[in-house]
Amino acid sequence: MTPNLRIQGRDAQSNNILAGKAVASAVRTTLGPKGMDKMLVDSMGDIVITNDGATILKEMDIQHPAAKMIVEVSKTQDAEVGDGTTTVAVLSGELLSKAEELIMKGVHPTIISEGYRHAAEKCREILETITIAISPDDEAALIKIAGTAITGKGAESYKETLSALTVKAVRSIVEEEEGGFKVNVLENIKIEKRAGGSIDDSELVDGLVIDKERSHPNMPEKVENAKILLLSCPVEFRKTEMDSEIKITSPGQMQLFLDQEEKMMKEMAEKVIASGANVVFCQKGIDDMAQYYIEKAGIYAVRRVKKSDLKRLNKVTGGTIIQDLDQITTADVGTAGLVEEKEVKGGKMTYVTGCQNSKAVTVLLHGGTEHVVDSLDRALNDALHVVGVVIEDGKIVVGGGSSEIELSLRLSEYASTLKGREQLAVSKFAEALEVIPEALAENAGLDPIDMMVELRSQHEKGNKNAGLNVYTGEVVDMWENDVIEPLRIKTQAINAAMEATVMILRIDDVVASTGSANQGMGPGGLPDMPDLDMDAAY
């Protein structure tokens, strides 16, 4: 193997740590209510403006394999909890930075890894002592939790409206299970965006809203006691798999061809009509001739429906998704109380409501521009997941850097009881946790040293809920200031950051793989250092 196809030992570790720190520094300025936004511009000129950590890291063109691990951690945090994505990326970067200090002193990465695992386990124990139990029926507390998730996003000025909408949506889909509650936000809550109107026009619909209108204006606008047919196959002619042509030598043959075409379309339409359905949702196209016969039968038809919407309709109405028109039976037809087309700012939409045994709801978001609505979507998505997590777990902690400071102090005390070099790793883990309140202070334009001294002082006096009020620059009781978060945000962030850090630290050899064709690699097949394409991202 040639030397330039491999990086070993200390060089490999430094290389990977540098990449991880670079990713963390890219999102650090977005942390907290006073965090700044990033403008992400792609090759087509489309822009995304956000301070959501997961969105920023997902959109950035990151090539370095170690840096991609931090991105994966952020994605996992987003999927598991919905919020805390910036926190986990920043914490990962700081853990790597502290580990690098120990490596420079001669502490072996394996010792650091063991110490970090030990520290993360101890953090879980400490967090259990500062958690606050909450009831799923405590609507006021749930609204505060949703408000904390929305704070700092572009939609913050409409926090009260969105928080109330969030809690109402989540509580309407809660399912009781043996030993607790289950909230499936992804499957049961649909967010539909529409530019036009103001944020105050946003509403919660008990049912599904499909961003499609009737395929023909003569079809009924409203269908009560709807019998719904779901089609994933087209109601139109199929194209041949290979190029073909038909030679017509006389006008009579042309007429026969047209008559046969019309007959075939009529047969296809009659199969749909024979199902007994009075509403049809089709994933593919519906031919104009077929539309004519379907419209004459008084059927409400919608074409080009998204696959995800068809799956939701399948769950909500109880109808079977049909893949072949010849296989339609009356048992495949679903039901709904009402299907109607409504005028919504910016166009028309189809509302499907009154479904039996359905927990599905739709949040219809409005905003002045596409960018405003996209920002609302990201904020609401975080809030919905956070409220769902709290209802499932029933445990919360206070925010504003309060939990991290308490963990840091208690972990430092615990480290002093340990023997050997593991004590150093646990101490560094405790120091790394302070990066969150420190970043909150920096992003608010406050002096981080003064703020950290005051925070430590308050916690050493026993004020476990003392955190940083970034608006006044004072250390206050976060519980009284309604800054509360799910316990799972903290536990997931600490565990995920620890696991990613340990994985990166244990790598001492980076080799260019032959199977990858060296994609995303720098000269000689090794990763560029650190190739994050920051200029393209901002």
Automatic annotation (TrEMBL):
Q: Which CDD domains match?
A: cpn60 (cd03343)
Q: Entry's PROSITE patterns? A: TCP1_1, TCP1_2, TCP1_3
Q: Region Disordered: what ranges?
A: 516-538
- Provide any one GO MF term from the record: ATP-dependent protein folding chaperone
Q: Which InterPro entries match?
A: Chaperone_TCP-1 (IPR017998), Chaperonin_TCP-1_CS (IPR002194), Cpn60/GroEL/TCP-1 (IPR002423), GroEL-like_apical_dom_sf (IPR027409), GROEL-like_equatorial_sf (IPR027413), TCP-1-like_intermed_sf (IPR027410), TCP-1_chaperonin (IPR053374), thermosome_alpha (IPR054827)
Per the record, the domain of life is Archaea
SUPFAM superfamilies under this entry?
GroEL apical domain-like (SSF52029), GroEL equatorial domain-like (SSF48592), GroEL-intermediate domain like (SSF54849)
- Which keywords are on file for this protein? ATP-binding, Chaperone, Nucleotide-binding
Pfam families from the entry?
Answer: Cpn60_TCP1
The record's similarity note reads:
Belongs to the TCP-1 chaperonin family.
The name this protein carries in UniProt is TCP-1/cpn60 chaperonin family protein
**Organism listed in the record:** Methanococcoides seepicolus
